């Protein structure tokens, strides 16, 4: 198998996967960490809390040469990195399997996997992390086959450089160290020779120096460090996010371990279906029989990364399974070679696995297509309406995900939006209100910010409603619809910081169906039909499900794509409504509703008790 053929195949896969991601790219701003990355990208000031110096350095260069809207640009950068990761995976899989066809199949499996695809169409660090994981594995396998000091030095350099993007590179260390010690041509002691240790130390130091950018930013803050020791302590605390990771790493309660195991099974099926994990097991067994050191290497990589994700008590556990998913795809490439040799048709077996990956891409394309997802921008425009520096000041205390999006909105979309987070101004709020009144500006507060303000100052403030900030109820949205319109209503168990207005939901359902319809008491509920008639579908379950219903020629696919007992963050949404292969609704926790025509185009929608719900606002003044 020629190196040139491998490189051409890797390039073809990289470009093809990039084209797929580009077609489904989020066009602009998003909430959560993505909003934070979009805000920070291009900035010369990156604090230790921001972290990820390599990611931001690449983004800064990319923005310099692509002067388009920053949010769109860094989303596009993720798509490029995602395609590159799949190209590098071709090379690693070819090194592992000796079959270019199997390598292509492994790369397509990973490139089309649900979570990786969803993270490669938004500003995130995981696509670049996958590049380093794939490159590190490929270099380690090449070095084991053809031991050369230059290859080993490059492996050390790549591994150290990867820490500038994500500190979870440390999870690759156990497998890599064991593999290098077992595979050293002169025995494990040669790995402690002066030349090897010296290069490893140099690479480690140079890799760590990436964080000097973050460290330097400490002296630009309003309260800089008083000494180098103070700077180091603050740097370590912030860059490792010690304050919240300490309560999350290996902190999954023992009582929910069974649920987490079921969640991992769901996640594997969501990425690959049930076929691929079985083929991966075959691949692992084959490797233990033929190249046990390689098998142990990949097993340790999978086990350590999967165990970390399993025990990481965060609201987006699924993204931390990505490195282990990459290993599963690699092992599936090895497994299909073994199955093909047994059947006497190794190339055909690999081609069938690649075709299977293509079928899954075709199936998931509508669900992962965010090219028309302007919901975050619409929420932020509604939130900031009228709050320009001439007429009003906006004070907020929204969910942190929305606040991150609002930071980008203020920086790049509407720089004239005047305002701040309520916690930053609450100590002098009366003076701020009075000063703005004196120059003819209103002070607007969102609901949670108003609670903070009234809790601090009570009767000192006069509160009035802001009509332009009031969002419609779902019953009001439904009341505007004519009889006979297709709809889907999804009710997902909300997070603890959101409360469902069941009375409003009940009124809307009465208007939708014309008759009382009992709502299933489950975590996931989907109701579909025509307005003014009894629903054609009422489905409820405590686990993810998929239902299809035909609404007068409209093929409606309702997919629940989350694990509500653990997931509080899903960038791609917690489910989907797909009509005739059109992405009609991204389902969130709480209330998600859409009315649509026969082609799947929405004619009315509503979100409640989630981060896409329209926030109410109030006007405050002093008594």
Class based on secondary structure composition and strand pairing: alpha+beta
Largest sheet: 5 strands, mixed
Number of domains: 3
**Unreliable stretches:** none
Share of helix, binned: 40-55%
Give the mean pLDDT. 93
What is the CA-atom radius of gyration, in angstroms?
26 Å
Q: Mind explaining what this structure looks like?
A:
With 623 residues, the chain is α+β, with helices and mostly antiparallel strands. It has three domains: 3-368, no CATH class; 375-470; 474-608, no CATH class. 54% of the residues lie in helices and 13% in strands. It has 26 helices and 14 strands. It has helices at 3-23, 32-40, 53-65, 70-97, 100-111, 114-119, 126-145, 149-162, 173-183, 194-208, 212-217, 228-239, 242-245, 257-272, 275-290, 292-311, 317-320, 322-343, 346-368, 375-384, 400-413, 422-425, 429-438, 447-457, 474-479, 502-513, and strands spanning 392-396, 419-421, 442-446, 461-465, 486-492, 524-530, 537-541, 546-551, 554-560, 575-579, 582-587, 590-596, 602-608, 617-622. It has a five-stranded mixed sheet. Strands 7-6-5-12-13 form a five-stranded antiparallel sheet. A four-stranded antiparallel sheet has the order 8-9-10-11, with helices on one face. Helix 18 (322-343) packs antiparallel against helix 19 (346-368). The chain is globular, with a radius of gyration of 26 Å.
